[in-house]
């Protein structure tokens, strides 16, 4: 169950990062509130997951999910630039997350 919590926490990291962008520097109320609530939920689930998953595994996977997710949201929803170097960088992050999972006991 800890892995489910960790994955959901990572997905929520993507949601709060996107809502933070939509808040325009916390100048818009609704996206600002969503950011804070979802951020707290993400941290809470990460903390629960870390009861059984080592810090050195949980945190990199959480940030990796957030990094790849926000990259995909930026490219697909916000029309941010995509090029070969960014794709290679994203691929390396995915490989790092997979290796963390595979190497965890």
Give a quick rundown of the structure.
With 105 residues, the protein is mainly alpha-helical.
Structure description:
It comes from Modicisalibacter luteus. The chain has helices spanning 2-22, 29-49, 55-77, 84-103. By secondary structure, the protein is mostly helical. It has one domain (2-103). The longest helix has 23 residues, at 55-77.
Sequence-ordered SSE layout with sheet pairings:
Elements: H1 2-22, H2 29-49, H3 55-77, H4 84-103
Helix pairs in contact: 1-2, 1-3, 3-4
What integer value in Å does the Rg equal?
A: 15 Å
- What low-confidence regions span 5 or more consecutive residues with pLDDT below 50? none
Number of domains: 1
Question: Which structural class do the helices and strands define?
Answer: mainly alpha
Strand content: under 5%
Distinct helical segment count: 4
User: What sort of overall outline do the alpha carbons produce when their principal axes are compared?
Assistant: flat
Report the end-to-end length measured between terminal Cα atoms. Answer: 15 Å
Mean pLDDT: 95
- Helix content percent band: over 70%
| SSE order | HHHH
Largest sheet: none
Compute the number of strand runs.
0
